[in-house]
Amino acid sequence: MKTKLQYAVVALCLIAVVSCSKESDVSPEYPVAQNVTAMERELLDLVNAHRETLGQTSLIFSEVAYQYANTHTDYMIATGSLNHDNFSARASGISSKVAAKAVSENVARNYDSALKALQGWLQSESHKKTMEGNYTHTAISIKEDPQGNLYYTQLFYLQ
Description:
Elements: H1 2-19, H2 37-53, E1 60-61, H3 63-79, H4 87-98, E2 102-109, H5 114-123, H6 125-131, E3 137-144, E4 150-158
Parallel strand pairs: 1-3
Antiparallel strand pairs: 2-4, 3-4
C-alpha cells in the first residue's frame, strides 16, 4: 500500500512539472486576429531596404515562417504580453519543415507604423543584430488586438 502511494505521489509531481512548463509541443487554440497585411509588406520592404544599405541580401518571404509567426502573434494577443514563449518549439518546427540551419525572432508591440517598428528594432542592439544577421528567409505577422494595439512577430531563418 505504501509503495502504491509513493508511486502516486511521484506521478502527480511529474504531471505538475510537465503541466507548468512554458515550452510545449502542443499549440493551444487561441482566437485568430486579422493580419494587417499592408503593414506586414511595408515592414518587410523596410527591413530588406535596411539590409541592402549594409550590403546584405534581401530576405525571402517564407510561408512556413509566416504560419509560425501568426500563431505566436495570436498567442501574444491572447496572453496580453510581449514574449518569446515557446520559441524553441517554433524554431524546431520551422527547422523540420525547411531544413533551417538557424532560426531567430524579433517581437514588438504598440508601434503604430511599420517605420516606427523598424526604428524600435534598430534602437535595440539584440533586435538589430537579429535583423542584420546571416539569414535567408523571413516572415512578419502584424495583428491588432480588440483594444487596437498592434503586435508584431518576425521570424528569420538560414537555409
